[in-house]
Amino acid sequence: xxxxxxxxxxxxxxxxxxxxxxxxxxxxxxxxxxxxxxxxxxxxxxxxxxxxxxxxxxxxxxxxxxxxxxxxxxxxxxxxxxxxxxxxxxxxxxxxxxxxxxxxxxxxxxxxxxxxxxxxxxxxxxxxxxxxxxxxxxxxxxxxxxxxxxxxxxxxxxxx
Length: 160
Fold this sequence. Notes:
single chain, mainly alpha, Helicase, Ruva Protein, domain 3
């Protein structure tokens, strides 16, 4: 059993190392004459999100679309485009989802503040219901007399 677990762990680690090596090899195919451009490229591919993959940067994705986006980013950086120009191009083409740091708009505010608003509305409803029930919890004179009779009956039944 120990040998099987050891073999399984070895296979998993081998698979992970091959995946990271292929990813590193993919990124090494981009040649830069200027280290500033290379730094900008690496920064951008870490910030841009693959539209096909769920929550994965184009640097980490093996999807063909992510490779196309890396190629486009490389081409734009080599042509002298600024970071914001590359981001604007990707956002214009793929929407705000393409960038990990979307701008603050009415839609994003609704997404971030909507759940908080719903929680506050729910708390307000609970408070209003509790207050309403608190006001109606006082017993009328007939109900108090009935309650006193029941308590007296229960006390005498327990004494027997």
